[in-house]
Protein 1
Amino acid sequence: MIIDGHNDLVARLWRGDEVRHVHLDQAADADFAGGFFALYVPSPKLAEPPPADHYALPLSEPVPRDEAARVAAELYDVFLSLPVQLATSPEDFGQDRVTAILHLEGAEPLAENLSDLDEWHARGLRSIGPVWSRANAFAEGVPFRFPSSPDTGPGLTGAGRELVRRCNGLGILVDLSHLNEAGFWDVARLSTAPLVATHSNAHAICASTRNLTDAQLDAIGVSGGVVGINFAVSFLREDGGQVAATPLREIVRHVEYVAGRIGIDHVAFGSDFDGALVSEELGGIAGLPKLVAELRAAGFDDEGVAKVTHRNWLRVLGDTWA
Ligand code: ZN
């Protein structure tokens, strides 16, 4: 069974684009049990890392709250149209179905005073990334830069700190991916839940702003949290390049690094399917069994594979949603 930390299927369908990776009719054969399905309000100009191995894209423009709320309502309707079961408990995941965690990637659609957070929780929202890679009322995300430290700007605002407290109270997971380093440490200091980065990699291997430094990884491990390894080639490769011909071994390398640094209990998958360029060897979810075979070839035993593919996610969801 494979549970995944991030996909952008909803935004892709909302735009009217062709599905590239998350073909739900292939889920059963691929042993794909679902995971985090993002509601992502797109930025007008899509910031995808360029093919060059050095880049410093400007920070994406903020999206006004009213516009973000309108788009989020449409994204939510798309989510509801999917043939998936909504996740509100780890027990909702099973081998015979696709289960979806409703995740908000960037909290722009929320009122700054969080007056609508309870309503979103009632709709099934169980995970929030305070930011995508731009600024909003709650925090600031990292611009896409390589090579670069993730220490690129200011941390949480007062509203952002209140968002973390309210999420802790409601049992909503707070996702650290896309936060800059100051925001990361603000959440780490404040949150009472295990620390989670749903779709980020090891900065020591690939020096992208989107990846986690060793100190950040250590904090996630100590908290009992988890890192979902992102399959986006530009966040995997040492050269940061947008190269489709990237071997699956590069994903395993980050799994090995994080497991070696903070333990096998703290690493999982966070594909970024339908939101990023991934290895052509993988394709979409149909290629997941190939990735599992690559883990086994690298020496991961049954228990290690079970932890990386689903057990770690289930444990952290249980600890966070309790
Ligand atoms: Zn993302």
Protein 2
Amino acid sequence: MSDYLPPWAPRDGLRITGVRPIVTAPDVTLVVVRVETNEPGLYGLGCATFTQRFEAVAAAVEHLAPLVVGRHPGDIEDITRMVHLSGYWRNGPVLNNALSGLDMALWDILGKRLGVPVYELLGGRVRGAVPLYTHASGATIDETIAQARSLVDAGYRHIRLQTGGPGLGTYGAPGTPGGYPRAPYPDGWDVQRYLAVTPELFARARAELGAEVSLLHDVHSRLTPKQAIALCRALEPYRLFFVEDPVAPEHYDRLPEVRAASPVPIAAGEQLGSVAEAARLVTSGGVDLLRLHVSAVGGLTPARKLTALCELTGTQTAWHGPADVSPIGQAANLALDMTTSAFGIQEGHAYPDVVHEIFPGTPRARDGYVEPPHAPGWGIDIDEEQAAKHPPKRYGHERWATRVRRPDGAIESP
Ligand code: MG
């Protein structure tokens, strides 16, 4: 008998027979884990997407496979805790993404066995559909507002606004190359210009888009705590839905003071790779909205516990959902969104058609809302033949981060 089998008797013959990573890069590089069982046609899929370190995650998935082959796939709590503890040193985005791939795949299998979508396993829906926010990111304020207006026309009521600038531009928006010609790094990003222009962007947006649209902004962790407070105060008149990641994760212990001084709700957490740190972010009073890359904290199992913590502490959720979350990962976000009163907002991404071909069942947004698939499990499959047509390349995503520097050349939190 394997050392990894549980000390209780098996209740039926169902067993995990294999665990393997699938890496595909139709748009950005995605990592999915497939868990096989000995029941013909019964398998599960989970998101393990850490685009910047996909090979390390794939290796971690292969490492954990022998720990779980032979287990009953319904023992989700025991299996995921055993895998988590078995490394002795635990957490971090590589190990947690591998764990998430396994964890979400087990939830998928459970839903398929019972013939229900995962959201029903979490207690059932508390809303009809999930409202999304999406991104308007022009090179100029005029362009950003024009993009936002077309998104409003398409039905979105929550829009993240970023606008470009000289050099690198602002996070999420294009820059003007050579914008600081007299600086050591002409393509740099200037914090003082950013602090001056961002309130101008929102003044214009509120005046031109009206009172009803929700406006959001992502600092992308580039400010000091004091600069973050100054920005949030300057944005107060424009009633933002949230300001995201005002400081870098290394400085999260300063978030409670930023939040206490900010008249604008603070959303943070997407760079965390630990469920314990995410819990502390909530209990320390550091966030109004907890914002996780759910696979980076270990998957649905830890995320549903954090969601319950949010409900109990008056905190809201705003899960990370851009291109570097796979459709399976977004399905897990939506299952949480559908089933909690702590839901704040969901980041949406319109996947290109090629992603829909690889992941049949991926839902499309309509009028600013999306419904999770209603088929059993996640309701999303993978076409491995299509996936194999898009092999990944190294260093796509992180090359961008290595170029985020101030005009004096100092590297910046991306
Ligand atoms: Mg962000």
